Amino acid sequence: MVAGQPPSADGAEVLSTAWSRAMGLRIPVVNAPMGGVAGGRLAAAVGAAGGLGMIGMGSAGSVAALERELAQLGDDAGRFGIGLVDWVVATQPGLLDRAIAAEPVLISVSFGTDMSWVDRVRDAGIRTATQVYNAEEAKRAERSGVDVLVARGAEGGGHGAVEMATLPLLDAVLDAVSIPVLAAGGIGSAATLAAMLTAGASGVWLGTCLAACPESLLSQDGREAMIAARGTDTILTRAFDVGMELPWATRFPTRVLRNEFAARWTGHEAELARDPAARAELGAGIARADQRVTPIDAGQGVGLVTAAEPVAQLLGSLCAGAARLLGR
Asked: What keywords does the record list, in alphabetical order (predicted)?
């Protein structure tokens, strides 16, 4: 059940679900653990705003990178989570152990089929989450003991399977399991937040709208590109993973802002894999932050991003607006 009411003068809770209340959150919002974007400062800001802030360890995740971002949480970190990628955990010895040792309230591991991590994390008294893309995956994750699922629709930015849009996926997953489900993909307004909660989501997993906030690790050029983009300016591609020789499964392309490199190589990844000069050009362009070639993860809700708002302001507006809609 969703509780929604207009914001009070003292800033008291305006939006909640049974899951968010059980987690000790004031709002049913979790930031997506976006690699290279969701660092300690963003996680701390989301937590201070009443949600659950997640530190993301993406393709470049490592023990050293996690240590660096944990240090950015500050002395009053409060509740936070850590998001990991299955194949990165497998290639970075000690990363999962360090994540567990940090004592977050939630650890998510996604993009894989080995669920052996679930018991290790739960045995440490930490809740678990994973992204799913269809009902059968949701059932398998529930049988593995996962505490909360993230139904990530094809509208979402970054890596993900392209199987279902967010609302149909949410319906299918809710019908398949009895554990809490968070909705992800294309959520960037009060209306879409309210829609997901009305449909039965226990909360939302927000990425694109928070990536542009000044507390994120995104570069200023990347932030400006997101603000200037329309919802039709994204593209699904494997070109960057192939160009950077990252071992992402073909099932998980990435949704990014369309740029020259994506336009040139999407659909021609086999040719790119045989072209060392093109791959070297990509690496050099990313190193100098050339926006013609640098990937910027963004979902189809990017057109709703019109300013680099601080996290507290953005989440306050989204949740208050959703509460008003739900209270009609």
From this structure: Flavoprotein, FMN, Oxidoreductase
